[in-house]
Each structure stands twice: as C-alpha cells, then as structure tokens.
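Changelog-adjacent note: as of this version, every example in the card shows the full chain rather than a window. The one below runs 351 residues end to end.
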Amino acid sequence: MVEISLILLFILFLSMLFLLLSLFLYLMVKKHLNNQFQQKVDEYKDAYRIKVFRYLQTGDPDELGNVKEDEELLKALVELLSDYSQLLTGPEIQMRISYFANQHLMNYLEKQLVQRRWSLRMNALYMIEDFYLVNLSEILHRTYNQKITTVSEKAQILKTLAKFDDKRVGEYIKYVDQNISDFTLLSIFLILEEEKLDKLVEEFQQLSTRLQCLLIETIEKRQLIKHHQFLLMLIENEDEEVKIRALKAIANTGIPIEPELIKDLLQSSSWTTRMMATKVVGMQRLETCKPQLITLLSDREYSVRAEAAKAILRFKDGLAILTNVTKESTDIFAKDMAIEWLEKASGGYSY
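Full-length structure tokens:
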C-alpha cells in the first residue's frame, strides 16, 4: 500500500511538473512573439513617422505611399495618428486624420472591438472617438447593447455617440447604467447638442433624480438661459436635491427671479435650501430681501450665516449693514459673523 501511494505521488508530481513546464514554455513563446510583434510595430513607426506628419500637413495621401493590410503596420499607423492628434490641432488636421482612418483603419479597429482583452477594446473605442469614425456608429450600438460590455466601455461608447450627435444617444442616457459615474455622465451631457438637451428637458419627469440633477448642472455650466422658466419652475419641486440644484443654477447663470419666489425659501426648514436661496438673493442683489438676510446672520447653521454675510456685502450698503450688526445686534452668532466678513472685506477677499 505504501509503495502504491508513493508511485501515485510520484506520477502526480511528474504531471504537475509537466503542466508547469508547459505553461512556462507557452508564456515564454507568447512573450517572444509579442516582443517580435512590438519590435515590428516600432520599426514601422520609425519608418512612417515623417510620412504621416507630411500627410497631415499637406493632405496628400501619396506621402504615405501604398498602405498594406499588415497588422503591425496598421497598429503603428493608429499609434502615430493618435500621437499627432494630441499634438496637432485644427479642423483640417482632424479632417485628414478622419479621412485616412476611414480609408485604411476601419477593419482593423472593428476587429479590435471583439478582442478578448479589455484594454484592446478600450483603445479601439478611444481611437474611434479621436479619429471621428462616424461610419462605425452601428458597431458601437451593437457593442453597447451586448451583455458582456463593461461599464467603462459603455461610458466611452456613450461619449463617442454624443460627440457624433447620434440620434439614439438620448434614449441610452434615459436608461443609463447606474454604475457609470456622475463625472462621466456630466462630461457626456456637456458635449450633447442643444437639441438633445432640449428633448431631455421636455422629458424631465421621466428621468431619475440623478439624471435630473446632472441635467440642471449642465444647463448651469453651459449657461443655457433659454431654460430660465424651467429652472424657476423647479425651485418649487418637492425633491430637495432638485430644488437646491435649480437654485444653484439660477444663482450662477444670473437668471432674473422675482423676490416673492425666493422669500419663502429663505425660511425653509432645510438649511441647504436656505443657504442656496441666500446665495441667489446676494448674486441678484434683491433689495426687498435684505431684512431676511440680516435675520439669517443668526441662523443655527454656520454655512447659512456665512452665505448671508457674503450676500449682504454684495449690496452697496453692505459694509454699513454689517458694521451696524456688530454694534447693535444682541445675537453673538450674528455679531461674530459680521466681524468675520468685515475682516475678510478689509483684506480684499473676493465675494
């Protein structure tokens, strides 16, 4: 029995050793082939660097000569065009890059999109955006709707389709993957054509709260003041976050607002709403709201008190009002806040 056990262990050892050696040899061969492939790519890049530069400068495709359907050459050209697209700017350069890519690189990039390696697929997606390959839009749609497509791939596809002004991108956004970050979605919103944004505004109630807030922030950042009535309507929204985002957008876009619409918000039970409403009053210098600003210097929340003092300083008599508060107010919070902002004002603080 002992001898049989030893024999089995020895056979198992030899089997494992064989597997490890086979794996080692496979990795060695694969690395050698990859090194050879990359060496050929680098050689092509050296050979075509000046040719690609001349083509981008002149627009003459003869500068590149005959482009073979060689994987190493195509990869080299993709890398060179990507490098030059970052260095050289202008509509003519972009047009020439796009023209060449459409002529020679479509099949190569399409094949890259179905590779197993995630990094190869992502690089292909970046190139499609950089080279403005609108003709690959259908493939992007197909890839986006596949179950195996990762979140990062979906985010990049959405960004590219937005850049291409694709008609279906609005629908994708409405039902976007929740794992795509707010930062990424905002970057997509910021490059959407206004017509697409207008459509999303019309369908506002169908959007999730998250998308509603991002849409409001987009209106703010792009200064789309044509949506002023829409923003004014949102300050009465039941959702606190939507209301705050709308107030912030009104404050930063300078959209006119009637004092009566903001007065009740200055007394809201939510300190964030009071703070943003105070910001609006200060940015628009709403004279009839000044007494409430003075009252808010005694607010229980520091941020509200600070915003009230900052808002008061935006009025012509702001310094006089805060000075008077330091002398006559019986509220220690109001006096301290007035003193703090008077010191900031004397120090040249920008408010």
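Structural remarks: The mean pLDDT is 89.
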